[in-house]
Write a structure and sequence with these properties.
The complex is a heterodimer of chains A (about 475) and B (about 190). Chain A has about 475 residues and is mostly helical. Chain A folds into 2 domains: about 1-125, no CATH class; about 250-468, no CATH class. Chain A is about 70% helix and about 5% strand. Chain A has 19 helices and 5 strands. In chain A, strand 3 and strand 4 form a beta hairpin. In chain A, helix 9 runs parallel beside helix 12 (about 280-300) and helix 11 runs antiparallel to helix 12 (about 280-300). The two termini of chain A are about 35 Å apart. Chain B is mainly α and about 190 residues long. Chain B has one domain (about 1-70, about 85-185). In chain B, about 80% of the residues lie in helices and about 0% in strands. Chain B contains 7 helices and no strands. Chain B has helices at about 1-20, 25-40, 50-70, 80-110, 115-135, 135-160, 160-185. In chain B, helix 1 runs antiparallel to helix 2 (about 25-40) and helix 5 (about 115-135) runs antiparallel to helix 6 (about 135-160). The radius of gyration of chain B is 16 Å and the shape is globular. Chain B starts with a helix and ends in a 6-residue tail after the last helix. Classes of the chains: A mainly alpha (about 475), B mainly alpha (about 190). Chain B: Keywords: Membrane, Transmembrane, Transmembrane helix. Chain A: It holds the Pfam family Proton_antipo_M.
């Protein structure tokens, strides 16, 4: 049996089969959660390929799977990336099960994850563009909210990803054969420009970012945030794969300068828009833009430390989005929140969910005692070593964000004007316990970073030529 | 030579049919024609079955969209004035001129048949104009499909594989399903 069969083909078909049983939503949600956890746990006991191991029980799987004349390939070093995809889907599905929230992530999330993994695993990897396009279409189906009647964000995402695909495919064709053999300067510039355009569209670099806040606002909270969590992550992994795969590309300084520039533009523009935002869901969209900016800056630093920061930034990114998602789920069970002003005195009505929202927001800015502290501080340090201007812009962006979040803090903590019925956290005990557990994890990761962050550095083992 | 010139001429007529008329039937007829043109051009390079897959998936997509359109037609109000249609036609003519002016330089970089490159570029830009000038879901979807059809003519001349054909077919069908789904749900529900 081969690894791609287990982690790509099987989940894809499982997703299709589960569609037919979706009437029993809770059961399907439970099956999907259990299946995803099983896929993650399985990674702990399997070895891809002929790797010698003397550690306990191990199951060996072949690394390749042939599909229509091309190959899907997972190396042993890809296990962590696969684990991230299914861990995220597992915790998202678990939240949907616990809150009994209907979402198209159940069961389309399995198809989306498997397609994104196929895009990462396909060899030659220029074909990844086509698989990403299919994944985006599935993602659009997940993100569309039938109740709002709005589809602007989805349509824009589809347009931008479709515009990006030809650039990546042409760059791939252009570079075919150039993986080891040198290319001349003109070819280098042309291929870099093509790749650059492709990734600018895919990563939602300004001015092609508008779909991100729109999806955050228009879609149901779990659907929109899942797409925003998983899709850019897959694009980043493909970007790393390109950088790792082409020797001349990773040695080309202009590429890293462009990454730095794009990262700064995303971070700064995202922070400004977030600061003046009055709609809470759109604000969350801008937070994902800012985090994409951080990740690009970390890559653009082109140093071991920079790549390490990139991997460490992923944890606060996922945890922040997850915390926000489950907090909104808890709140929206009893009312709708659209504007920041809707959070007025929230602490007195939903104390745990309020703490959770604040924890998620301040994690983004890297406040002490939050999961974002270590990577964001490291980013400041490393970017200051590179250029004071870059560090200044990153710190300035975070300062703007902090001011904005302090404003939200004040709104949430606003005392209730009239007398109110005291709420008990025992009212929704199961949900509150779940929320509290995630908050504890976020704080633990902030206080004891060595507990969580070193494992995230394993992502870099898939890109052996980047982490030198 | 004559056939190629005729193909180029009719490709311009097809883009005009996609862009200018208000009636969705003309738009879908134009889209179906782009798939037929794609088939005629690709079948000269690829085996018949692979080229036929592209034609068939395209036509299935057109049928899907037209079925949805027939069911939602009643709710739709025709929009756009004569001046807007003249503007779009002029935009299309401008794009043809740009393609004509740049095609030889592009051909040096992409070593494929001149006819394939020209028609591919014309369709590709027609798609961009279509979804840039009209925000309605149906027209954006048609624009995307036209863009993909144009790009497919170019890319098929560069790279041929069963996986690409299968994925391309999947993308076209998926976009049509998504378009039908959104069009069916949201038509007349306050879309801007």
């Amino acid at each position: 049996m081969s690894a791609p069969l287990v982690w790509i083909i099987l989940p894809f078909f499982a997703s299709i089969v589960l569609i037919f049983f979706r009437k029993n939503y809770q059961l399907v949600a439970l099956i999907q959660t259990a299946f995803c956890f099983f896929l993650v746990l399985l990674l702990l006991v399997v070895r891809f390929g002929d790797v010698d191991s003397t550690q306990g029980l191990t199951i060996k799987l072949t690394t390749t799977f042939n599909l229509l004349g091309r190959t899907l390939e997972f190396k042993n070093s890809d296990k962590f990336v696969i684990g991230i995809f299914y861990s995220i889907l597992a915790i998202w599905s678990a939240a949907l099960f616990i809150y009994n929230k209907h979402s198209k992530i159940i069961p389309l999330g399995l198809a989306l994850s498997s397609l994104l993994l196929a895009a990462i695993a396909v060899e030659p990897f220029l074909y990844s563009a086509l698989l990403i396009e299919v994944a985006v279409i599935i993602g659009s189906m997940i993100a569309v909210d039938l109740t709002t009647g709005k589809s602007k964000g989805i349509i824009r995402a589809l347009v931008f990803f479709t515009l990006g695909m030809p650039f990546i495919l042409l760059a791939g064709w252009y570079l075919a054969g150039g993986e080891t053999s040198p290319v001349n300067d003109t070819q280098l510039v042309q291929a870099t420009v093509l790749l650059g355009f492709g990734f600018v569209f895919w990563l939602g670099i300004f001015p092609f970012h508008s779909w991100i806040p729109l999806i955050a606002e228009e879609s149901e909270v779990p659907d929109g945030l899942y797409i925003l969590a998983i899709l850019p992550f897959a694009i980043f992994i493909i970007l790393l794969k390109y950088l790792n795969g082409f020797v001349w590309l990773r040695d080309y300084d202009l590429v890293y300068q462009a990454l730095l520039l794009f990262g700064l533009v995303l971070t700064f523009s995202g922070a400004i828009w977030a600061t003046f935002q009055t709609r809470i869901k759109k604000l969350v969209g801008y937070l994902t833009i800012i985090y994409s900016g951080f990740l690009l800056i970390a890559l653009g630093l082109n140093s071991n430390q920079g790549f390490q920061i990139f991997s460490e930034l992923l944890l606060p990114r996922f945890l922040s989005l997850y915390l926000l998602m489950i907090s909104f789920l808890a709140i929206e069970k009893k009312g709708v929140i659209e504007q920041i002003s809707d959070l007025d005195s929230l602490f007195y009505r939903f104390p745990i969910a309020s703490i959770s929202i604040l924890m998620a927001l301040f994690s983004v800015t890297g406040m002490p005692l939050t999961v974002g502290f270590l990577p964001v501080q490291s980013l400041y340090q490393e970017s200051a070593r590179n250029s004071t201007l870059i560090a200044g812009l990153v710190i300035g962006s975070n300062a703007l964000l902090s001011i904005s979040f302090l404003r939200i803090f004040v709104v949430i903590m606003q005392p209730l004007a009239d007398e109110f019925d005291a709420v008990s956290i025992l009212d929704d005990l199961k949900e509150n316990k779940f929320l509290a557990a995630i908050i504890v994890i976020v704080i633990l990761a902030g206080i004891i970073p060595n507990l969580f962050f070193p494992s995230f550095n394993q992502i870099l083992s898939s890109f052996e030529f980047l982490a030198r | 030579m004559i056939i190629n010139s005729l193909l180029i001429f009719f490709s311009l007529v097809v883009t005009a049919a996609i862009l200018v008329p208000r009636d969705w039937r003309w738009t879908l007829f134009g889209l179906a024609m782009t798939y037929l043109f794609g088939f005629i051009l690709i079948v000269q390079i690829w085996p018949l079955p692979l080229a036929a897959v592209k034609l068939l998936t395209g036509l299935i997509g057109v049928i899907l969209l037209s079925t949805t359109k027939m069911n939602t037609e009643v709710q739709e109000e025709p929009i756009g004035s004569i001046s807007s249609r003249i503007f779009i036609l002029l935009l299309a003519i401008l794009s043809w001129i740009i393609v004509l002016a740049t095609i030889s330089r592009l051909n040096a970089w992409l070593p494929i048949e001149y006819t394939n490159l020209f028609i591919g570029m014309v369709f590709l830009i027609c798609g961009i104009i279509k979804f840039s000038t009209d925000q309605r879901i149906f027209n954006v979807i048609v624009g995307l499909l036209t863009l993909l059809s144009g790009f497919d003519i170019i890319y098929s001349s560069l790279e041929g594989s069963a996986l690409v054909t299968a994925l391309y077919a999947l993308i076209v069908i998926s976009i049509c399903i998504l378009g039908s789904y959104l069009e069916g749900i949201f038509s007349g529900e306050g879309e801007e």
